């Protein structure tokens, strides 16, 4: 486990160290794990430029995508797990088939839809395009969690006088929090890292997201690796924070709350 953790965390360590190195130390033949003269000027330059605005744009889009994905997947996953829907098996196949489509196949159809609805270049349009990438798998994940929860728990609540909605809200939804946390992490990371839709649909520089902003460090003749690493550190922080916030729910047992007094 120690070796696995070391292999997983080393790229992040190297990213942070490289962001603090001057250019002369980045391109040395022998790797330097600790910079001799660490510099913070790259971070001050980033925060004095357009990065704060692009950071907020990414946070807004990823946050909205996560919330909407969780809400839709929660309701759709419960319906697919509990109700006898006509042609449900084929519907599940369609949901999974959407996830197998290459992202490039969706660019032009979504572009036409957003243009015809006057959502091109708006936050709402970008969120809707990200939902095409997140809702399908999140729904399938939550359906699996709902199927693992015994139906007898809901029936017991309804025998005691609760309606179906009240039984679902008070009994089932609290037990499915680990699945909601897992699907939320998936939705947030997918939206946060998405580049193709953001670069195609957000044509105004004031609404660019961070993945689009990272491209500005590369040109035909020069690549600012120090700047890329500094921006990547900022890019990584929200994902780590979001995971730390939901890890408790993510690690909980599926029906741990059912046996508590």
From TrEMBL:
<keyword id="KW-0813">Transport</keyword>
<feature type="transmembrane region" description="Helical">
    <location>
        <begin position="90"/>
        <end position="114"/>
    </location>
</feature>
<feature type="domain" description="ABC transmembrane type-1">
    <location>
        <begin position="55"/>
        <end position="246"/>
    </location>
</feature>
<dbReference type="InterPro" id="IPR000515">
    <property type="entry name" value="MetI-like"/>
</dbReference>
<feature type="transmembrane region" description="Helical">
    <location>
        <begin position="126"/>
        <end position="146"/>
    </location>
</feature>
<keyword id="KW-0472">Membrane</keyword>
<comment type="similarity">
    <text>Belongs to the binding-protein-dependent transport system permease family.</text>
</comment>
<feature type="transmembrane region" description="Helical">
    <location>
        <begin position="225"/>
        <end position="246"/>
    </location>
</feature>
<keyword id="KW-1003">Cell membrane</keyword>
<dbReference type="GO" id="GO:0055085">
    <property type="term" value="P:transmembrane transport"/>
</dbReference>
<dbReference type="Pfam" id="PF00528">
    <property type="entry name" value="BPD_transp_1"/>
</dbReference>
<feature type="transmembrane region" description="Helical">
    <location>
        <begin position="55"/>
        <end position="78"/>
    </location>
</feature>
<dbReference type="InterPro" id="IPR035906">
    <property type="entry name" value="MetI-like_sf"/>
</dbReference>
<feature type="transmembrane region" description="Helical">
    <location>
        <begin position="167"/>
        <end position="189"/>
    </location>
</feature>
<keyword id="KW-1133">Transmembrane helix</keyword>
<keyword id="KW-0812">Transmembrane</keyword>
<dbReference type="InterPro" id="IPR050901">
    <property type="entry name" value="BP-dep_ABC_trans_perm"/>
</dbReference>
<dbReference type="GO" id="GO:0005886">
    <property type="term" value="C:plasma membrane"/>
</dbReference>
<protein>
    <submittedName>
        <fullName>Carbohydrate ABC transporter permease</fullName>
    </submittedName>
</protein>
